[in-house]
Structures are given as structure tokens and as C-alpha cells.
Design goal:
The protein is of the alpha/beta class. 57% of the residues lie in helices and 10% in strands. The protein has three domains: 204 residues, P-loop containing nucleotide triphosphate hydrolases (Rossmann fold, 3-Layer(aba) Sandwich); 66 residues, Helicase, Ruva Protein, domain 3, CATH 1.10.8; 97 residues, Winged helix-like DNA-binding domain superfamily/Winged helix DNA-binding domain (Arc Repressor Mutant, subunit A, Orthogonal Bundle). Bound molecules: adenosine-5'-triphosphate and magnesium ion (MG).
Amino acid sequence: MLFSTRPKEDRRDLYDREREIDMIKESIERREWVSVIGPKRVGKTSLVNVAVKETNNAVIQVNLMRLYDPRKKQYPKEDFIRLFLESVNTSIRNYTALGKAIRIVSNILGVEGQGELDLNSLKLKARLKRLRGQDISYLLSEMNSLARDNGKKLVVVLDESQELSKVMGVNFSSIFHHVYDNCENTVIVFTGSQSRLVERVLRNMEYSEPFFGRYIRTVPLGRFTRDQSVDFLERGFREEGVKVERDVIEGVVDLLDGIPGWLTLFGSEYSFGVKHGLKPNLEKIVDRATEEVKSEVLNFLEASQSPFRYSAIILALDRVRSATLNEIVKVASSILGEEIPEPRVYEMLKRLVDLEFVMKDGDRYKLQPDEPGMRGTVMAAKEILQGRE
Ligand SMILES: Nc1ncnc2c1ncn2[C@@H]1O[C@H](COP(=O)(O)OP(=O)(O)OP(=O)(O)O)[C@@H](O)[C@H]1O
Ligand SMILES: [Mg+2]
């Protein structure tokens, strides 16, 4: 169903994205590493799920968002290792070809391995801390061979890979180099919602040779166009057997501006309402999306070094809509009642653009065009500045 709100697994449920699916599949076939980059809720996880599944290979899917904690600037090594081994466990369950890996994992951990490992047991918790990057490289080599012996490739998906930069004490550069050089049958697929951060993560990893820039393909994933958004909603409603007037659809598309995640949420809630005789309430759906953005932006602001300055910049953008650096410096300084140095504003804007909270077009900056994106960001900034008074 197009309007199912979970990440999609099947092409039938994914609207369009044919070109991107082909790009990923072809890259995997040729064993080229790929990174899929796009704003939040645009469908990165869904796209990679569908494309990878269609290649019919062995997959280790690591969802790094599970490490995410806005209060933490860094994650301890053992949290990452537990997540990674859990992902390996799931993979072993799904692909009999990888069955033997359970023994390898047990060996690395120094436990008697039979059946599944309980990674939360106290005994294992202590051992996770002792695991090293080399152990991960070794495990991946072994899984690479197991997959190869069964005529499959090993696809490792690192979802939200910008989070890797916060993991302490694991040398990913060395792991990736090892895998690239020794595991000819393994492909890594990175996804990330913060384009420049992902690039930075990858760039930081090149130490011995200019590696990642050269060998990782980028598949950019963008918002739906206006026509696609309308078509997506019409098809989705047809599938749900719900009749919706064209002007309602146009109105929604004006508000949600091409973000598949919001369009899906709207379609799902609206269909549910109509089917069960409730009056669908667009405002409520936009509010829910707005709340999500707000809490994301609040998390960022609260954890940042200068929450008030960031908030003033956001409110300046709200006031002037589209502005140059110079204009933003003036308006933000007046909102805050103190001069913010221009280089500092520049740096902060860059960070906001990295996070996709703000968009840059030529030399002008503006807030996101979709209503939840814009409203949620501004609400968070207002809340922070109210706390100052
Ligand atoms: N092309 C599409 N067709 C149908 N539904 C889609 C499409 N793209 C995304 N969706 C829906 O939008 C929502 C967000 O998708 P998904 O989780 O794949 O995006 P994401 O970019 O990984 O988001 P996040 O930044 O939150 O990780 C889900 O409900 C998903 O089902
Ligand atoms: Mg995702």
C-alpha cells in the first residue's frame, strides 16, 4: 500500500524512484559502494530496502538511528558493537547462507556459541567492550566468504551513517579499507539525511589514500515534484478506495511540499478517517508533522553550544523569508539584542543547512518550504528564546 507509514520493503508500495532503484541495483551488481543522500522522510530507508531486496543477496542492515540520543555528542564503542552484532544476528536468521557466522561471532566474543546470542546478557556486555575494530573486519571477511561460497554478495547497509562520526574508539577508516581491499564480494551502502555530514564522515576516513571520494557513488534522493505529489496522493486514495476532491489534494500538496513522509502520513490518516466515518482533519495531521520537526530541532538547539544565537537566526529567516548572510546578521542581532559576528552567523547557517533545517539557494538562505518543516523549526526557536527571558 502506498500509504503504509512504515518504511517500504516492496517496489509495489514505493511510488516512482525507478531510476534510483536501478542505480543502486546496478552498483551492487558491479560491487560499487554507494551512498544515498537526501532530506529527512524523503524515502531513503524505503528506497534502499526495496533495491537491496531485489538484488537477492545476503544483507546486514545496520540502523544507526538506534544509537541516536540528542543529549549525547558521542556514543560508546560497545553500543555500536552491540548494534552491529544484533544486525549480524538478524542477518544470520534471514540468510541460511550465513548460518556458520554464529560460530565466528561466538569465537570473537569468547563464548560457547550455539543458537542465538543474547547480546544483552551481562556476561556478553562486558565482552563487547573488549572487541576491537579488527574483530569487526575479521567478522566481515568471514561473512564475505560465506556469502560468496553460496553465490551471493554481502550487502552491508549503514542507515544514517553520519552517526558513525560520533562512535568513540572504532577506527572505521581502517575497517572500510580492509573490507574494500579484501572483501571483493562485499558492497557497503551508506544512507544519510545530512548531506555534508555524510560527506565529511567519508572524507575523514581517507587517511592513507584519497579513497572514498573516488570510489563511492552518490545517489541523490529528492522531494517529489508537485505533479508527482498530486499523482502519488491520487493513486494512494484510489488504492484505498477513498474518493477525495482534487482541490483538497492540491491544498495538501501546497502545504506538504513534496515530502513523501508527510504525504504518506496525510494519506493514511485521511483514508482511515473517511473509512471509519470520522471527519478527516488536515490541520491535525499537519500539527503532528510539525510536532515531529519541532522536537527534532529542539533536540539540536538544546544540545548546541549557542541555542539562543541559532534560534535568533531561525527567527530572522522567518521574518525576512529569503535573505543574504548580511541581512541575517542584522536581523538576528537585533532579535537577540546583541551583535553576532558575521563569520559566526555564516558558520551557524552552514550547520543549519547541513542539518537540512535551512535551505541555501545561491547566496540566499530560507527556511524549508513545507509547512511542518517551516512551522516546526520556528516553534522550536521561539520556545528556546522564551526560555531566555
Ligand atoms: N517513494 C515512496 N513511495 C511511497 N511511500 C514512501 C516513498 N518514500 C517514502 N515513503 C514513505 O514515507 C515515510 C518515510 O520514508 P523512509 O522512512 O523510507 O524515509 P527516510 O528518508 O529514511 O526517513 P528518515 O529521515 O526519517 O530516516 C514512510 O512512511 C514511507 O513509507
Ligand atoms: Mg531512514
